[in-house]
Amino acid sequence: MDQPFNQYPEDGLKLLPRMRGDNCRHGYGLELQRLTGQTTCAYCGVSLVDDYYHWLLLSVDHVIPVRQCHRLGLPDDWRESYSNMVLSCSGCNSFDNRYPIPWDEPSSDWTLDRFFNLRNKVFKDRKPRILSQRAKEMRFFKSRPWER
After folding, report:
1. Buried b (16+ CB within 10 A) or exposed e, 59-84
2. In 11-80, alpha helices (H)
3. pLDDT tens digits, residue range 1-54?
4. Is 52:58 a contact under the CB 8 Å cutoff?
5. What residues make up the domain containing 119?
6. Does residue 55 contact residue 25 with C-beta atoms inside 8 Å?
7. Do 68 and 62 meet the contact criterion of CB atoms below 8 Å apart?
8. Rounded to two decimals, what is the model's pTM?
9. β partners of residue 89
């Protein structure tokens, strides 16, 4: 599976700066876009820059969720690094936020290599889960619940 990290500096195997800015579209999301060249949702592929309404969907997803980073004892600088983030649409960003990482290895001796391997594994596992949730939402939408 192609991963968005291939577009990141040094194929995503370099720790990028910490997220900064207080607004996704004007700050940290724009900075992630500039650093990586991404313009589409890393999960569903919808363009986030085609027009104003797509731009309003722009969101940033922590690939390894913040709660899991805390549980695993990952350094704050790694958790908040752009290396642990992807551009996403707001819909995909809302799916699978409670993702539990089945990681039983000791957390005391993290290396950047282990961190990047975990990030890649988590993305690979979460993407189909997120796309499955999108498909369920699409079926619900197509059932036209507002007409019932």
Report:
1. bbbbbbbeebbeebebeeebbbbbbb
2. 28-36, 52-55, 66-72, 76-79
3. 578 999 899 989 999 888 887 888 889 999 999 999 999 999 999 999 999 999
4. no
5. 4-147
6. yes
7. no
8. 0.90
9. 58
Q: Among 45, 74, 80, 77, which Cα is nearest to 62's? A: 80
Spatial contact of 8 and 131, defined as CB atoms under 8 Å apart: no
Q: How many CA atoms lie within 13 A of 110 on its CB side?
A: 20
What is the DSSP secondary-structure string of 94-125? HTTTTPPP---S-STT--HHHHHHHHHHHHHH
* Entry field: residues in the chain: 148
Overall domain count for the chain: 1
Question: What pairs with residue 61 in β-bridges?
Answer: 86
- Residue 38 token pair: 């991404």
Torsion of CA 120, 123, 126, 132, to 10 degrees: -130
Q: What is the DSSP letter of 64?
A: S
- Of the CA atoms within 13 Å of residue 5, those in its CB half-sphere come to 25
Tally of CA atoms within 13 A in the half-sphere of 126 that contains its CB: 28
